[in-house]
Amino acid sequence: MLEELQLAEVRLVPCHVPPHRERPRHDADCRLELLQLAVQGVPGLLVDDRELRRDGPSYTVDTLASLRGEFSQTPLCLIIGMDSFLNLPSWHRWRELTDLAHIVVLSRPGYAFDGSGELAEWLQGRRITQPQQLAVELAGSVYFHPVTQLDISATRIRSLIGSGRIPRFLMPDAVWQRIAALGLYGWPGGDIHPQPAKGGHD
User: Fold this and answer.
1) Measured between alpha carbons, how far is 172 from 67 in angstroms, rounded to an integer?
2) Residue 90 per-residue DSSP state
3) What's this model's pTM, rounded to 2 decimal places?
4) What is the mean pLDDT of the chain?
5) CB of 192 within 8 A of CB of 164?
6) % of the chain beyond a pLDDT of 90
7) CATH homologous superfamily of domain 10-145?
8) How many of the other CB atoms lie within 10 Å of CB of 152?
């Protein structure tokens, strides 16, 4: 998204108290460290800890209002997956989101918008088809962006780790090594760098 939409930066915002699911298994400091490791050395990707510093449920509308206060004259985009978009009417003050930012919706395996219902009605007059339009106004539009659909989810990765399987190539190596070192997400320990079988070829 950083490159394709020519954004100045992309902020990754770890959630403190998620309103729609169980509390995270590990504390805020631990998750913040993992996210910082994930973006280390990647220009344009920043970790924003404002939700971790705020008490109460981590409502996106409050986060966007905080960002809008800092960037009053800059177009802002909220990037979410299709699964989150379809659930948007259950979000706190969801209709106010486009007062504060544009919404960029990414395709996700197993989810599709059928163009009907409350969301379809709300989309009228908001949906745009060209990403260049995101830079014209400060907020107010919804843009659906097709992406290569990789069926990778945090739930699946946690399941792999908990069953003692190594999730290489599903996350940055620095993050995986830290998870293994701390025994997070049920990792049972052991060698995280398997040796090639004897007699094999490189």
Assistant:
1) 28
2) G
3) 0.79
4) 88
5) no
6) 65
7) HUPs (3.40.50.620)
8) 12
